[in-house]
Every structure is written in C-alpha cells, then in structure tokens.
Amino acid sequence: MYLTKEEERMLRGDDGETLRKMIEILAALGDIYGADALIPIKSAQVSGVSYKTIGDAGIEWISNLKGTIQVPTVLNPAGMDMNNWERLGIDPKFAAKQIQIIKAFESFGIAPKCTCTPYYLKGFDVSYKDHLAWGESSAISFANSVLGARTNREGGPSALAAALIGKTPDYGYHKVENRVPSLEIHVGFETKESDYGALGYVAGKFVGSKIPLFKMKSVPSKDEMKMLGAAMAASGAVALYHIDGVTPEITDKAFVYEKPAESITIERKDIDAVYESAENATIASDIVTIGCPHCSKEELEQIAALLEGKTVVKEFWIFTAREVADQNKELVSRIEKSGAKIVCDTCMVVSPAASAYHSMRVNSGKAFAYVPSMCGLKATYGTVERCVKDATGEI
Ligand code: F3S
Q1: Tens of pLDDT along 29-49?
Q2: Protein residue whose Cα sits closest to atom 6 of ligand 1
Q3: What is residue 81's predicted lDDT score, i.e. its pLDDT?
Q4: Which domains does the chain have, with CATH numbers?
Q5: Ligand 1, pocket residues at CB < 6 Å
Q6: Hey, which bits of the chain come out as E strands?
Q7: Which atom of ligand 1 is nearest to the CA of 370?
C-alpha cells in the first residue's frame, strides 16, 4: 500500500511508539486486503469497550497507548451505565475496571459516549458516501445501508488506529464495486415493527456475508431498518444491504449493478416461527429488555405511551444513548414512573447485569441471537407491545 511521506515517518516511529503501532495496523490491513492507500474518514466508532468483552488484557493494551484522536470518535456500549451502575447490581470491582477503560479512552480525547447508535449524536452526522471507521456491527450496517456511507467492519484496534490517524485503508466497503448486491431476497407480505428484527434474524442465516437486495412489499422506517440490519449482522455477517426503492445507494442512478443470479423468498411463516419458537411457548421471562440497538426518540415515545398509567411487575430495562436520554427527559420520567429503568452507556448483551436472570424477553433479532450465547439466558421474542405487556404482568 502506498504511504505518504508523513505516514512513512509514522511507520518509522518518528512520531512516537503509539502512532507507529497504529499505522502498522492500518498498513497491515491495507496490504492484506489490497488497498492502494489510506483515505480520510469523517468519524470513528471504537468497539471493545466493555470490561466483560476485553478483560485485563484489553485494559493493558489501551493503557500503553498515547495519542490524540484526529476525527470525532465515539465508543461502543460499555459494561454498565457509567453514571448509575449500582442500580443494575454491577459488582464494584467490575465498575472500577470499566471506569479505568473509559478513562484510558478519554486520554485520547474521546468523549465518553458509549452507544451503538452514533448516528443519533451531535457531531456524528453521516452523509451519503462519507467514509467512516465504525466498529459495532449494527451501526456499520445502518451507516452502510440506511445512510449510504462507507465503512468496513472495524475491530477495536483498527478503529482506534483510524481515530488516532484520521484515516483508514481504502478496501472492502469503501470501494463502490464491493457494494453491489449478490443475492435477492423477496418478501411478498406486509411487515411492520418487530417483524423486521425477525426478518433479519431469518435472513442473516441464509445470507452469511453476502450483500442482499430486498424486494419488499412494505416500506420500512429508519428504526425498522435499524432492527433489520442489527439482526442480520448477528445471525449472519451482513454489513451492507439494499432495499429496492428505499435505501440511498440502490436508488442512485449512478450506482451500476447487475441483477443478482441468486435469489431466495422469505415467507410469513418463517417470521412467525421466530415469534412462536419453542422457547416462547414454554418459558416465562423474568426480565424484559428493549433497546438493541439503542432506542431512538420515536421508540422511547412508543414505550412511554404503552406504559402510561401502568406499573411493571418485573425488571424492564430500556437502553438508549445518554445524549438521547438527556434530550428527552420528559419521556424518560414518564417511562420510569412505571418502574421501568432507562439505562445508558451499555446494553443487555455487553453488561454482566443480566446474568442474575434466567429468561429475557426482547424485541430485537440481534438480542434474540446473542442473549443465549453471550449472557447464558434463554431469550423470547415479541413486539414492543408484547414486551410492555410482559413487563406489566398483562400476559
Ligand atoms: Fe447495541 Fe448491544 Fe445490541 S451494542 S446493537 S444494544 S447487542
């Protein structure tokens, strides 16, 4: 990969050991994947933030680095609500380690904003064709597919390297020729709300890492596309999808592609099977969670309306970005009046808090895929309305 004089100087270590290590990571990726050069990025999102996932080895690695971010950079969810960690029963020893991790990231100038929905934050606006270096799979899918931006699936070290250098190697999803659909998915029935998480959960298993082009009867909202992409990234490895007539790239006349040779059809009964899985029929949940990916204002509004005048009878956690919660305090207090908890900076998967429970009801295809494997709980799937009814003892 071609390096500029400035980048070569970094690689020699003239600008310090951290930048030498960082450009070494980017140059190695560029060489492996055939990038011609590094390209500037608009923002970065660093994953590998929860102590649950990176452990002491991760703390040691980050703590040995020194540097300053060159572009707006946000963190993936941490292992706890940084302002209110006692409320979910987090062990103080875990909290001390998590605080150490966040402080290490702050030393680079990264604001301690821990979310998988950076696109809701001020300063992280994303435009069509922007180049990014994001690390959380649902955020990557949303950026690539719904916003038409360009990011590879960055690991923690490569996203941090991109943040500290302000560039990323130009390969993979940064190249328009690697963004063409390779599989058509036909969905010939009406879909709404949590159907999209179930659809993504089913589709991801067929698609793997291909780029699907959906032909859908319904037109999904951005929140619905968020749920679709998150689920496909979890049950498969989908980082980019298109929806005919909806997503920006496929509707751009300048985007040239051929009709994919392969096609599959997903039927209503495939989606219903997710709702009606054996677990749904036999296991009562002892906790309900919503907010995978983190809730938008509109999703908080829906939950607040459904909870109006009701009281929860079991733990009900709703995850969102702190900035979204701060901007919607009235919604937060309406939700919390029921006994439900708005939780920021973290989620049901990357926090150890859920391990005290046995069975979790979720409205997210991604959480449905990950809660059993990463938290050791059974998971049941339902609409937002069903989640609220479960939490308030109405079912
Ligand atoms: Fe976000 Fe955690 Fe789900 S990082 S996408 S809420 S698993």
Answers
A1: 999 999 999 999 999 999 999
A2: 292
A3: 98
A4: 5-176 (3.30.499), 180-272 (no CATH), 280-391 (3.30.499.10)
A5: 77, 116, 136, 138, 230, 292-294, 319, 347, 349-350, 366-367, 370
A6: 38-40, 44-46, 73-75, 167-169, 183-187, 212-216, 242-243, 263-266, 287-295, 315-320, 341-344, 359-362, 378-381
A7: 7
